Amino acid sequence: MVQLEILTGKRAGEKIEARHFPFIVGREPGLDLTLEEPGVWGRHLELRLAPQHGIVLTVLSEALVSVNAQPVREHRLRNGDTIEIGALKIRFWLAETRPRSFRLRERLIWIGLAAVFLLQIAIIYWLGN
Fold this sequence. Notes:
20% of the residues lie in helices and 36% in strands. It has 1 helix and 11 strands, in the order βββββββββββα.
């Protein structure tokens, strides 16, 4: 997953996870990330997953975007890149992975092992009589 951290503007400090691609950013309501800041266009940029290249930022229409203070039209993003959209700065991060919880599975295995143990004790007792 990808995490976008808004560094400046009204929503500074907010972190957004991009869970699907393409991920569209702009001013229009209903986009994946709607930003109402000066210099943000209706459909400003798109993040897409390119199998050979990773996450690629593509500028939509004639909007202006800089990555690490360099103007771009299309750019392969790297962890920690700073995206500038109008007056807004956003940091691109690869989100931390969350390990799956195995508690239920572990408990079921221990219950199963206890049942097998008790069954073996019962069989030994039954065969001994």
